[in-house]
Amino acid sequence: MKKRLVFAVAAAGLALLDGCATPPPDNLEHGPHGTVAYDVAIDASAPGAQIEANGQIIGQTPLHLKIFGDKDGTFHDFGSYYYIVRALPLTTNQFVQTRVFQTGRYFTPEDHIPQQIFFDMNQPPPAPSPVPPAVAGYPAYPYPPPYPYYYPAPYYGPTVRFYFGGPGYYHHHW
Fold this sequence. Notes:
Blueprint: H1 2-18, E1 36-44, E2 50-53, E3 56-60, E4 63-69, E5 82-88, E6 97-102, E7 116-119
Parallel strand pairs: 1-7
Antiparallel strand pairs: 1-4, 2-3, 2-5, 5-6
């Protein structure tokens, strides 16, 4: 009797959790792998700057970029760790501006898709950090190369030895 009650409570709980998902509205544009299209407005301080998304030039500012992401508003993993949007400068006194978004590949964090991106072309890029960046959620390695390697400790416990040989092998003590 007790097992049936536990089973009934578990089945009711699963049915309750299963019914919580709401489908997206029908007016959304659907993309590959169950993704949804999001419209991102891109602008820069210098109108006419070329915009590059994942290595492909898509146009000049101001423009609208269609990004296919997950239904919860985050970037979808299409095989890359990052989604990169760059603005290329128009004149020599401007700098390349870059926005990097994580896609959640292999359990890394994933970023939300912004509604708009603004690039200030006169701002210099940040200085490189002397410490290597963290990879896949792990902290940066605290030692500079070459990295130390510690061999396992030798084992000095009891051993078993097997001797293989013919019957003619004898060891004599003289």
